[in-house]
Amino acid sequence: MQKQKILVTGGAGFIGSHLVDKLIEFENQVTVIDSLVSGNQEFIQDQITSGKCIFIKGDIRNSEIFNDISGEVDYIFHLAADPDVKTSVSKPVLSFEHNVRGTLNVLEYARVNKPKGFIFASSGGTLYGDVDKFPITEESLLQPISPYGASKAAGEIYIGAYANAYNFKAVSGRYANIFGERSMHGVSFDFYHKLKKNPKELTILGNGMQKKSYLHVSDCVNATILIGDNLNKQKKWYDYYNIGSEEWFTVKELASVIESQMGLENVKHKFTGGEKGWVGDVHKLLLSIEKIKEIGWSPKISFEEAMHRYVEYLEKI
Ligand SMILES: NC(=O)c1ccc[n+]([C@@H]2O[C@H](COP(=O)([O-])OP(=O)(O)OC[C@H]3O[C@@H](n4cnc5c(N)ncnc54)[C@H](O)[C@@H]3O)[C@@H](O)[C@H]2O)c1
Asked: How far, in Å, CA of 52 to CA of 31, rounded?
């Protein structure tokens, strides 16, 4: 993807800002729409200052915001969302408004403007729900157990319908747990801060046996751009790919890796108990990545290396 005009919703967020950096590296002209509800303009300020990125501060729940985009758009990367599973359980309507209503507004913009491609940040971690067969392939049933997962499933179904009805190519990347520099939420962020406060003891939600796979943000961004690039070869109007790693770790193992990266020893673990960390949490996650491997992507950064980079980043900010 080179020298294209690209709209990134949620481009000031954790994954979105890394995506913006990469797209600009390939000489694309990027427009970001972000309400900054959880993002940070600082992440993309250099790109804005250089003129390679146009920033529109606005909310995708308001369809008028799309009138502020000047000129044509070749590709749309739709990442703006409330990404928090826990919040979606306590505020399900808010999650619907951002993730479903907001997605519909982006799709309406696409319906009128017919981009070459529409790429959606979906969630392999929540779409499939609690399953007992691993790794989870893309053909598994969608059985979300949280309002957030339901909102991502609804988003995908609308995208598939719009792509077919209005003839533009679309694809979803179903992400595992993504982490790395600029991430301000998730288990690693949480553990790091708890351990900074108390390096002797760590409270772990659940029984610590929840087992999941994690992926560094740079691998996630490369995969996301690849599925976008692949749209001109994609036969169907709409398709979807799991994006994750082939390793998985228990929360206890994750805690040990982060502790060793922080130089801590003999940290006592306290467990809140139960199979799950919170309502809506899936207790196991390993995505099959065979489908995306067939089009030429596999993860490059190991979990240990990714954690090393993340801890180094957190130490500096
Ligand atoms: N981080 C993960 O592990 C993960 C896993 C699966 C899927 N995803 C998806 O990837 C995308 C990016 O997630 P992230 O982890 O970078 O989170 P993030 O919160 O850092 O990024 C989301 C961005 O969207 C913006 N935003 C939210 N609601 C908006 C609205 N209504 N209008 C305009 N902007 C809005 C936020 O300000 C933020 O910049 C999300 O769609 C999320 O659901 C993330």
From this structure: 9
Domain range list for the chain: 5-178+214-243, 183-212+247-284+301-316
Classified by CATH at the fold level, domain 183-212+247-284+301-316 comes out as UDP-galactose 4-epimerase; domain 1 (3.90.25)
Task: Kindly give the number of the ligand 1 atom that is closest to the alpha carbon of 97.
Answer: 31
Residue 36 CB less than 6 A away from ligand 1:
yes
Distance in Å, CA 148 to ligand 1 centroid: 12
Its pTM surpasses 0.70: yes
**Ligand 1 within 6 A of CB of 177:** yes
List, by residue number, the catalytic residues: 148
Q: What is the pLDDT of residues 219-263, one digit of tens each?
A: 999 999 999 999 999 999 999 999 999 999 999 999 999 999 999
Distance 116 CA to ligand 1 centre (A): 23
Nearest 10 degrees: Cα torsion 255, 256, 258, 262: 130
- 3-class secondary-structure state, position 317: coil
Q: Ligand 1: distance of its center to the CA of 15 in Å?
A: 7
Separation CA 171–CA 230 (nearest Å) = 9
- What is the CATH class of 5-178+214-243? alpha beta
